[in-house]
């Protein structure tokens, strides 16, 4: 997960302040030194760090903090606001042409994830905007690029305009745009060539394509794992092409986060999307305020809720809410819940979005193997309906019967029953609107 180091260091710094009733200027100075080091270590651009620290210091030594009864909270609030600010305040949506098609040109260095991001973006447009996009394959230098785009096109049912690798990219784009007109595609995504580094020839070609296509969006696809280099690349492309935005890829890896925090401040151009995996569904709209919350370990309930809405079976969710209220959550629901949660992605990533869970040691063990789920199901299916509804019936001899029935060790049966009871209690607490209950259960 991205930002791990930065997140840990910032939270450690702030936890030192938490116990203090009164914060002095010397405390603020010491804290700022630590924040500065944390940012530089996360590969945040030097000038960005400097400006950031200056702003925080000005605000933190003001009466807003020093006279406050809860100085630590005040400082965290300020850091949160300023982090949000350097990443761009709020999400910026895609530009749209006044009349179809909206033309989106994707540029970037080789390996940044350009072709994959073209696929993700097309899928996003289809899903969210009911769009009918067309790809234009204008990367003629990397022979596999055209094939890769065709494969992606087949997967998500998006047509690809291509002429192999012999024609000139500018000609391909021109004819591709004609086809989009004829077929009334509402979006056109142009996949352009990349190189290992920025060179004049590449930039000239991209400028020519830009002049011809007059795109509504020129999105730079940049790899967050490259840290400072990503910021330089963004600067270079922006100078030559005047970008409209950035897609920051590979934020699922253990990137230190510097690119996410620097690009907007250095180029003035917004990060519009982030890539969070190799799959075509792994694209998220970039929300600076949510990212700041995640960095500060305050969770990201909004993204979690949106994810849940997308992946969760609505009827089941309603049913669960009712059961939580009636306190009738049983083993059948337990299995259904585990299945639902599994659909949302790796457990450890989901838990991190819950406020206060970011650096919870219990999370280290939150990984769940799909095989484990099968084992749990086997145990539940060995129960009678009465037992499923009332775990108190499960005395030692019944537990032995379940272990034998499911072919699992008795210790596993005991563990599962314990987990179930905890989950039941947690549900009760949550239905009373007490999120801290969840934290307690998992931390305890
Ligand atoms: P291009 O040369 O810029 O077109 O790059 P590709 O689209 O071929 O991507 C290069 C590699 O990065 C491929 O192996 C992709 O699967 C991978 N990739 C792209 N985006 C992401 C992402 O957000 N997360 C991860 N983990 N891998 C990604």
TrEMBL record:
EC code(s) of this entry = 3.6.5.4
Q: Where in the cell is it found?
A: Cytoplasm
Q: Does the keyword Transmembrane apply?
A: no
EC category name: hydrolase
Q: Which CDD domains match?
A: SRP_G
Q: Per UniProt, where does GTP bind?
A: 108-115, 191-195, 249-252
Query: Where is the SRP54-type proteins GTP-binding domain positioned along the sequence?
Result: 270-283
Query: Which reaction(s) are listed as its catalytic activity?
Result: GTP + H2O = GDP + phosphate + H(+)
Q: Which InterPro entries match?
A: AAA+_ATPase, P-loop_NTPase, Signal_recog_part_SRP54_M_sf, Signal_recog_particl_SRP54_hlx, Signal_recog_particle_SRP54_M, SRP, SRP54, SRP54_GTPase_dom
Give the family, as the similarity comment puts it: Belongs to the GTP-binding SRP family. SRP54 subfamily.
Q: What does this protein do?
A: Involved in targeting and insertion of nascent membrane proteins into the cytoplasmic membrane. Binds to the hydrophobic signal sequence of the ribosome-nascent chain (RNC) as it emerges from the ribosomes. The SRP-RNC complex is then targeted to the cytoplasmic membrane where it interacts with the SRP receptor FtsY.
Task: Report the protein name in the record.
Answer: Signal recognition particle protein
Name of encoding gene:
ffh
């Amino acid at each position: 997960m991205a930002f791990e180091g930065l997140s840990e260091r910032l939270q450690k710094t702030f936890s030192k302040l938490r116990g203090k009733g009164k914060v002095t200027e010397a405390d603020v100075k010491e804290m700022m030194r630590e924040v500065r080091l944390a940012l530089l270590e996360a590969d945040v651009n030097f000038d960005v760090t400097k400006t950031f620290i200056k702003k925080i210091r000005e605000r933190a030594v003001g009466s807003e903090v020093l006279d406050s009864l809860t100085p630590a909270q005040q400082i965290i609030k300020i850091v949160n606001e300023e982090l949000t600010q350097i990443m761009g305040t709020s999400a910026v949506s895609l530009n749209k042409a006044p009349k179809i098609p909206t033309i989106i040109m994707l540029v970037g260095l080789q390996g940044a994830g350009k072709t994959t991001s073209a696929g993700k973006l097309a899928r996003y447009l289809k899903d969210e905007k009911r769009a009918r996009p067309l790809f234009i394959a204008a990367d003629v230098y990397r022979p596999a690029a055209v094939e890769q785009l065709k494969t992606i096109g087949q997967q998500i049912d998006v047509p690809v305009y291509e002429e192999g690798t012999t024609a000139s990219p500018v000609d391909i784009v021109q004819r591709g745009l004609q086809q989009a007109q004829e077929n009334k595609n509402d979006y056109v995504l142009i996949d352009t060539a990349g190189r290992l580094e920025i060179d004049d020839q590449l930039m000239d070609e991209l400028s020519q394509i830009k002049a011809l296509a007059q795109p509504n969006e020129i999105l730079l696809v940049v790899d967050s794992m490259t840290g400072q280099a990503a910021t330089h690349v963004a600067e270079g492309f922006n100078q030559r092409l005047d970008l409209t935005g950035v897609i920051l890829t590979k934020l699922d890896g253990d990137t230190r986060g510097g690119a996410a925090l620097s690009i907007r401040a250095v180029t003035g151009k917004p990060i519009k999307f982030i890539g969070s995996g190799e799959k075509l569904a792994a694209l998220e709209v970039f929300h600076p305020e949510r990212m700041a919350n995640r960095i500060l370990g305050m969770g990201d309930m909004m993204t979690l809720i949106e994810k849940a809405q997308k992946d969760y079976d609505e009827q089941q969710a309603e049913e669960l809410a009712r059961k939580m209220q009636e306190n009738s959550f049983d083993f059948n629901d337990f299995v259904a819940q585990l299945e639902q949660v599994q659909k949302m992605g790796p457990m450890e990533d989901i838990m991190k979005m819950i406020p206060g869970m970011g650096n919870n040691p219990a999370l280290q063990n939150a990984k769940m193997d799909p095989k484990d789920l099968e084992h749990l199901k086997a145990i539940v299916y060995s129960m009678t309906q009465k037992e499923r509804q009332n775990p108190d019936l499960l005395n030692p001899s019944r537990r032995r019967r379940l272990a034998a029935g499911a072919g699992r060790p008795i210790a596993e049966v005991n563990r599962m029953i314990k987990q179930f009871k905890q989950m039941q209690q947690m549900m009760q607490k949550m239905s009373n609107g007490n999120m801290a209950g969840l934290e307690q259960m998992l931390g305890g």
